[in-house]
Amino acid sequence: MYLTQGLHRAIQRHPAKIALCHVADGHPRTTDFAALGTRVARAAAALKRHGVGTGDRVALLAQNGDGLIAMLLACWWRGAVACPLNTRWSAHELRHAIGDCGARLLLPDRQLTAMAEELGDLATVVPIDTFLADAEAAAGNGEPLDDMRIGGDALAAILYTGGTTGRAKGVMLSHANFWAASISRAAELNNAPDSVSLLVAPLFHVAGLGRLIGQLIAGGSCVTLPQFRADIVLSAIETHRISDIIVVPTMLQSLLDHPGFDAARLQCLNRIAFGAAPMPPDLLARALDAWPDAEFFQAYGMTETAAAVCINPPANHRPGPGAERHRHSVGRAGLGAEIRVVDPQGEEVPRGTVGEIVVRGPMVMRGYWNQPDASAQALRDGWLHTGDGGWMDEDGYLFIADRLKDMIISGGENVYSAEVETALRGHPHVAQAAVIGVPDARWGERVHAVVVVQGNVPQDEAALSAELTQWCRERLAGYKCPRSFAYVDGLPLSAAGKVLKSELRQRYRGAVAAGGC
């Protein structure tokens, strides 16, 4: 099990088939599998000339594109470790990650070269385009480099999580981890070799990287966009006949809300995967109406599990026996994965009881790079402790309650923010909502809602807050209802499209405690 295996298979089976199509500035650039194999072998030879050997780390700072994919594959061809970095990080955050992993090379794309050069004291900096061009120019100076075919438990990638606060952790994922996650997904949902996947989730995020690996294993085609823009994504789906896409709820809402959205022109899209954040029921209903024949499925996983460990299949997202009961579950344990819900002592709790979700299986990470204490804390008693709160029903379906760190304890009662957010989103004037806990002298923590409004709101903020409070009281227990509100034009999002609740907590903690907002 090595991550270039799918490339070799595709070259043997259909060398002239399009492997990659990169769309930038409206100009598509295609690469077939034979050409991709040649490019990767030459880039791997260039890595060797730069002194990169087995197990050495190569930092990649680039938006999605064919150059980034070629370098990921070249790292694995050479037996090196790919370290794709968050393109939205500051120089300070990047400095930590590059220094932490001890990268020998830092390869940025053109847009990020200036920032990368500020970090040249940590690693040799060569722009990806220059590196690949030099590799092509030097191709005649020696024999092509054979694929080292290093796989199994050998380290394939270090993916850094967090970084907005505290010390980012480098998740160590092996070739076998990625293979296990990809095969588990394929066992639940057949990955057709003629599929065309749109990679718009960033490749430094496990969802995007995992989808790329799954397509390579199956020999399918990938279309890449450098970043998510609703208009460009809609155009790419129609133009390139995209068959599947991975989105987070904020992305899906942006597509449906775009003035140029025309469902009739987008019916080529027959599989839509979503995850990373709770899917609001109203948003899912809109999407199901827009794509009546598409397969929708929700996946649950994390960087530490090399992507999904359970999937809620398409059958549960359309009318059918038992579908309504399980529609908002994240599914059941996938092939090779074991999942439990446990109490603080690590004992499994009764079905229907909220506890911490723990996972074990061949897709679980090797640990955190250079952080043995954090690794030991996360990997306890043979299980990965996810930090997610959830519960399991009698049929083995898993439901997410909240990140444990996002759970609010108000007056001694546990409040799960996702439940409050779902209630708020049902109001006609609420486009988006994020719920956090803020300090409160009486309750310990107060439920605070940050709301993006939609439509013409006929009243002032105080009146709207009173209306939303009443709306919530009709749907939730009193202790779960927001006691304060803030109204914003947009919520802060990570590069993967998740709401940055840590940023919201920093922004509102002091203001709300002082009587603001």
At a glance:
The protein has 517 residues and is α/β, with parallel strands linked by helices. It is built from 16 helices and 26 strands. It has a nine-stranded mixed beta sheet with strand order 2-1-10-9-11-12-13-14-15. Strands 16, 17, 19, 20 and 21 form a five-stranded antiparallel beta sheet that branches.
SS elements, strand count: 26
What is the name of the CATH superfamily of the domain at 5-15 and 32-192? ANL, N-terminal domain
**Which segments are poorly predicted (pLDDT under 50) over 5 or more consecutive residues?**
513-517
Question: What percent of the residues sit in helical stretches (DSSP H or I)?
Answer: 25-40%
What amount of the residues lies in strands? 25-35%
What is the mean predicted local confidence, pLDDT?
90
Strand order of the largest sheet: 2-1-10-9-11-12-13-14-15
What's the CATH C level of the domain at 5-15 and 32-192?
Answer: Alpha Beta
Report the CATH architecture of the domain at 5-15 and 32-192: 3-Layer(aba) Sandwich
**Cα-atom radius of gyration:** 23 Å
Major sheet: size, sense and barrel closure? Answer: 9 strands, mixed
What is the count of DSSP helices, taking H or I runs of 4+ residues? 16
Category by helix and strand content: alpha/beta
The N- to C-terminal Cα distance equals: 54 Å
Shape: globular
**According to CATH, what is the topology of the domain at 5-15 and 32-192?**
Rossmann fold
